[in-house]
Design a protein that fits this description.
By secondary structure, the protein is an alpha/beta fold. The protein has twelve helices and twelve strands. 47% of the residues are buried.
Length: 333
């Protein structure tokens, strides 16, 4: 029997309020051509009846009691899963019926593929990309490649990737046993980038499969440029840099994150950006930093250089946004 046909997959869905989104997703999962063996809803202390809704739909519900963040919810869901693979899904996504089968078939082609994700389109406009895969710059800022750009040839090529955004992605459960779960210090935002960076450092790669299509409403719970979103992102940029970037050049970190602050200021969120940076500096001391030596610093430099080169190549092919144009101008690329 082919590996893809035999493999069991658990869907892990962190949720906090918005029962309407969860109800839509649970109905959508029932339409998968390749059914999930387990559906685990991790309720982060919802104040509506999201947990009851999920239980009524036949899902296994883990009640966290309060909002402990996306990373903690995902970790608890993975710990509870019994399947070989886990699909991590935001509550505001829906999947094409062949999404799971397509990713499993692609991942089964090579034992060296540890995770896979597909093309994610905006739920409100299927001609626009919401996300594909992530890359990370030497500035500690992530790029959700393709986000906001028209769908086109650049986003229709199967390719090896370093980071799968946990909006909708499939992972071998063993990966979390080998490398540890998501870092709960991050809470929400960039926890998947931290995990992807750890995967890259360990030589565990993934696959982008554009024919596996999902649709995403995008920050439906908090909002794209909400105060909380900006605060968390600004804080977690500091945490990511403090955790991994020791021994790397300092100026890309300063330039990249200050430029991101200018973007936040243009959206009226300058105060949230500053407060996030202060919180990041304060909380960095709580991080569990990986052991580093000359070899690991060299590997990290190579990963960051390659990832940043991918951001630049894609921007040249599909168009620069103002942030990356300014960043690469400063770095003289």
């Amino acid at each position: 029997m082919p590996i893809a046909a035999a493999a069991r997959v658990a869907a892990v869905i962190p949720t906090w309020n918005r029962r309407d989104l969860l109800a839509t997703l649970l109905c959508n999962l029932a339409e998968q051509a390749r059914p999930f063996a387990e559906i685990i809803v991790v309720d982060n202390g919802s104040e509506d009846d999201s947990a009851e809704l999920a239980a009524g739909a036949g899902a296994r519900v883990l009640r966290m009691g309060r909002n402990l963040g996306f990373a903690a919810a995902v970790n608890r869901g993975i710990e509870a899963a019994e399947s070989e693979w886990v699909a991590i899904l935001n509550n505001d996504v829906t999947l094409e019926p062949d999404w799971l089968a397509t990713l499993l078939d692609a991942a089964a082609l090579d034992d060296d593929i540890w995770f896979a994700t597909g093309k994610i389109l905006q739920a409100g406009n299927h001609q626009v990309v919401d996300g594909t895969f992530d890359e990370i710059s030497r500035g500690g800022c992530a790029s959700r490649c393709g986000s906001g750009k028209p769908d086109g040839p650049a986003w229709n090529q199967t390719r090896r990737i370093r980071v799968a955004p946990m909006t909708a992605a499939l992972f071998r459960r063993q990966l979390f046993s080998d490398l540890g779960g998501l870092d709960e210090t991050f809470g929400s935002y960039m926890e998947d980038v931290d995990f992807g960076l750890r995967c890259a450092m360990a030589g565990r790669g993934g696959l982008f499969v554009p024919s596996a299509v999902a649709y995403h409403r995008g920050s439906a719970t908090l909002g794209v440029w909400s105060t909380d979103t900006v605060w968390r992102t600004a804080r977690n940029q500091v945490l990511l840099s403090a955790k991994h970037f020791r021994g790397q050049p300092w100026w890309p970190i300063v330039a990249g994150q200050l430029l991101w602050g200018i973007v936040a200021l243009r959206h009226g969120r300058g105060s949230a950006f500053v407060r996030g940076k202060i919180a990041g500096v304060s909380e960095a001391r709580r991080l569990r930093r990986p052991t580093t030596n000359e070899h690991t610093r060299k590997v990290l430099a190579e990963v960051l250089e390659s990832s940043e080169a991918s951001i630049l190549a894609l921007a040249r092919e599909t168009g620069f946004d103002s942030y990356w144009r300014a960043y690469f101008w400063l770095s003289r690329r």
